[in-house]
Amino acid sequence: MESIQTGPYEEKIFMQWKAPNETNGVITLYEITYKALGSLDPSADLTTQRGQVFKLPNETHHLFVGLYPGTTYYFTLKASTNKGFGPPVTTRIATKIAAPSMPEYETESPLNETDTTITVLLKPAQSRGAPVSAYQVVVQEERKQKVRRATDVLECFSIPVSFRNASILNSPHYFAAELPPVSLAVVQPFTIGDNKTYNGYWNAPLSPAKSYSIYFQALSKANGVSISFTVYFIYQFNVPANG
Burial letters for 39-66: b for 16+ Cβ neighbours within 10 Å, e otherwise? Predict the structure, then answer.
């Protein structure tokens, strides 16, 4: 069998191969078997991640779907003639990690509001190919009024900006907190503006009479290089002014 070319995605793998130069007869079919060897996500259930595919002699490619992100698969490819199967060719291919899956946020009211704080519910994400390594709360000052729904999916905030750096850079957003996954095993309330520091990020008190949007994102890392985010808009509100 000639060389195998592959293209991994998050939940699928494309495989292409060339027919062998020498065959013991006319090729009648190809057989491909695969099974999951392991995942970067220790919570992944890989018991059903195996299968077998048969291809016609003129079909030298296949798209495997329904795979699990961040998982290494072992493939065995064999060609068959009327005299039986030839020697197998094997390869290992890993799918890419996927962004954590975040639960939906309805348009429920905040749990509590003061002049300088707002308390919201944070919900844990579901890992998809790599464990969730951190949660991040992002506050953005809405300098122009925008209408968004609580279920809007937005681009991630990939570069962390502290409150102080946001002031220097005139950035409309800043990271108010970075939370470890163990602190969000279940749904938990969190107060934005509580004047505490979370993993180096100051959760600064909010400014009265300004309009803010609150974002929540989950971060996954694999081998220290691959990063995926999922971002959901939680609330938009105007902090009540004194008096």
Answer: bbbeebebeebeeebebeeeebebebee
155 plus 81 within the same structural domain: no
126 and 41, same domain (yes or no)? no
pTM for this predicted structure: 0.79
Site of tokens 């998050």 = 10
What is the distance between the alpha carbons of residues 211 and 91, in angstroms, rounded to a whole number? 54
Q: Is 45 helix (H, G, I), strand (E, B) or coil?
A: coil
Last residue of a domain, one of 29, 63, 94: 94
Which two structure tokens, joined as six digits, stand for 88?
A: 């197998």
Co-location of 119 and 197 in the same domain: yes
DSSP state of 167: H
Please write the tens of the pLDDT for every residue from 47-81: 999 999 999 999 999 999 999 999 999 999 999 99
> What is the block-wise mean pLDDT of the chain (243 residues), using blocks of 10 residues?
70 90 85 95 90 94 93 94 89 90 75 89 90 92 59 67 92 93 92 96 90 88 68 66 53
Alpha carbons 175 and 180: distance in angstroms, whole number? 14
Sheet holding 211-222, edge to edge: 173-179, 132-141, 211-222, 226-238
b/e sequence 94-117, b meaning 16+ C-beta within 10 Å: bbbbbbbebeebeeeebeebeebb
Question: Measured between alpha carbons, how far is 34 from 36 in angstroms, rounded to an integer?
Answer: 7
In a domain, 56, yes or no: yes
> Hey, CA dihedral for 148, 151, 157, 160, is it positive or negative?
positive
211: containing domain: 112-239
